[in-house]
Task: inverse folding
């Protein structure tokens, strides 16, 4: 027995020495194309090999989910759901989660956020190329739009499309969902001190070593003199929506790529919306919704959501007007 004890003690001591000598975490990052933009992953990992393993897995997962949720993909699950209209289709967990959450936001915003706006999205892509408004086409497509025409059955995980010629557009929510999935995959590989950024939308994990959070600069507009928020965040999502880059001017009027599902036209007020929420999917959807509603109605709806905050910068008479939810400063401090 004595020999066994003497053998065990050095072994434990050696194990403690090994743990104490573990290499410090180093910062690694990778930028790759994803969802039509450049996506960046930043992680803190003990070795380059560990970082590469997790980053590769995260990008693989995000590309897989993009293949499910993108209406640009001819054989994606969401595209096939549109082709099934009118009809019913069993859907997988990724699409189910996004559609179920989208329905929640649609209810909360009176339909200002609506993933069934796809037929109009397709028409506006054509109108932007031609630089002309087709009012007749918009009027003809509006009857196919309406989130109530997409029925979800939780018992069977099926989605039923009631209207004909429906097309689902997840552009206002899928990016957030996909980068959330990338962050979760990194955590599976032990990389919890991580950040995923896709075109300014961010899924943020645990803070970097010896820090309270990730230091992030959030520009509230591309206009000169716009406010830049410098924030330090962890374990949350951030999304910015607006017409800074995606818009069209036709007959002297500026139309955003963000469509109002009630009118069928692009939002004509130039504004930038940033939403902070527990997840990037939540932030993404609400940034899109408030872009349509505007700050007054948008903030009222957002106030009913736990742990959400927002800032809106609107261009009014050549001046930038910044409005923030009352809880924004406290929200940033808490995260």
Result:
């Amino acid at each position: 027995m004595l020999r066994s004890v003497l053998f065990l003690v050095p072994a434990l001591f050696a194990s403690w020495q090994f743990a104490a000598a573990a290499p410090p975490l180093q910062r690694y990052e990778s930028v790759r194309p994803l969802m039509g933009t450049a996506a960046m992953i930043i992680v803190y990992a003990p070795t380059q090999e560990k970082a590469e393993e997790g980053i590769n897995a995260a990008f693989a997962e995000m590309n897989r989910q993009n293949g499910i949720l993108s209406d640009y993909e001819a054989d994606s699950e969401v595209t096939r759901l549109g082709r099934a209209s009118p009809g019913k289709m069993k859907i997988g967990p990724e699409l189910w989660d996004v559609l179920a959450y989208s329905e929640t936001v649609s209810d909360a915003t009176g339909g200002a956020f609506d993933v069934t706006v796809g037929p109009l999205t397709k028409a506006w892509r054509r109108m932007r190329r031609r630089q002309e408004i087709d009012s007749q086409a918009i009027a003809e497509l509006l009857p196919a739009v309406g989130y109530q025409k997409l029925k979800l059955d939780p018992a069977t995980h099926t989605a039923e499309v009631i209207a004909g010629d429906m097309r689902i557009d997840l552009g206002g929510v899928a990016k957030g969902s996909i980068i959330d999935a990338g962050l979760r995959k990194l955590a599976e590989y032990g990389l919890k001190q991580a950040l995923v950024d896709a075109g300014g939308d961010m899924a943020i994990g645990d803070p970097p070593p010896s820090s309270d959070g990730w230091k992030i600069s959030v520009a509230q507009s591309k206009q000169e003199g716009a406010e830049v928020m410098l924030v330090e965040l962890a374990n949350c999502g951030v999304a910015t929506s607006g017409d800074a880059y995606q818009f069209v001017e036709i007959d002297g009027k500026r139309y955003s790529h963000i469509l109002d599902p009630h009118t069928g036209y692009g939002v004509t007020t130039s504004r930038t919306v940033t939403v902070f929420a527990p997840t990037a999917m939540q932030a993404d959807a609400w940034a899109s919704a408030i872009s349509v509603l505007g700050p007054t109605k948008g903030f009222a709806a957002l106030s009913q959501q736990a742990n959400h905050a927002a800032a809106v910068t609107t261009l009014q008479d050549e001046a930038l007007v910044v409005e923030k939810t009352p809880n924004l400063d406290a929200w940033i401090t808490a995260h």
Remarks:
- The first strand starts at residue 26 and ends at 34.
- The two ends are 53 Å apart (CA to CA).
- Confidence is low (pLDDT under 50) at residues 1-19.
